[in-house]
Design goal:
elongated; about 40% helix; 5-stranded parallel β-sheet
Length: about 230
């Protein structure tokens, strides 16, 4: 298993030390910051391989930091896992909309934390594996390049997060096939991922917004899940 260079941004000393202990015990290199401003300084000095980010920070909060990370060309592809308190669903939704890849609710178990990190590591391996990655899938106005993880809409490059690309590729591979929210999560994140229906819905809203007039290709099947429109193009 790869070991990661991780930047942890957390203002509660006890939680920060727990995170450092758990991560270093597993062999990861850990840098820390207690404010959003300090985190930005450390990101300018060196880009980590993963950002573990508390949303409730003094001064610049985690949502603003996430927004800046995604706007910076040097860090926009950096995997971001949010740390949230229970009951902060609105903040989770806002974070996912800003491009965060995952979230963990506090209090958390070390097992859950490591499962999330392992999912990120798996993605890194997948992105480095050449295999059949040059496969191109065309669905009407959409062209999906699996190897390059790119989507073109009417010839224009679409900016998707890792999760959005995975979901779109999953649905587009089987037009008309209905996927439940849990099937989507299982395919994209793995069966150990603790999901809420809202989290899947947030990704779908983001995808439709980015697809613009072609957002209707992603259909909601009431009470079941989602499917890619089965249309003869």
């Amino acid at each position: 298993m790869d070991k990661l260079d991780i930047l942890v941004v957390e203002d509660e000393p006890d939680i920060l030390e727990l995170l450092r202990h758990v991560l270093e015990k597993d062999g990861h290199m850990v840098r820390t910051a207690e404010t959003g401003e300090e985190a930005l300084q450390k990101l300018r000095m060196a880009t980590p391989q993963l950002l573990l980010l508390d949303l409730m920070l003094p001064g610049m909060d985690g949502l603003e930091l996430c927004r800046r990370v995604r706007q910076n060309p040097d860090t926009r592809d950096l995997p971001v896992i949010m740390l949230t308190a229970r009951g902060e669903e609105n903040d989770v939704v806002a974070g996912l909309n800003l491009g965060a890849d995952d979230y963990i609710t506090k209090p958390f178990s070390p097992r859950v934390l490591m499962a999330r990190l392992q999912a990120v590591i798996r993605r890194r391996h997948e992105e480095k594996t050449p295999a059949v990655e040059l496969e191109v899938m065309r669905r009407g106005p959409l062209t999906l390049h699996r190897g390059r993880r790119e989507v073109l809409v009417d010839g224009q490059l679409l900016g998707l997060t890792w999760s959005e690309f995975q979901i779109l590729a999953l649905l587009a591979a089987r037009p008309g096939w209905v996927f439940t929210r849990y099937q989507i999560v299982d395919a994209v994140r793995g069966e150990d991922y603790d999901v809420t229906e809202r989290a899947v819905d947030v990704h779908m809203v983001g995808l439709r917004r980015k697809l613009g007039i072609h957002g209707q290709l992603l259909e909601t099947v009431r009470g079941v899940g989602y499917r890619f429109q089965d249309t003869e193009f």
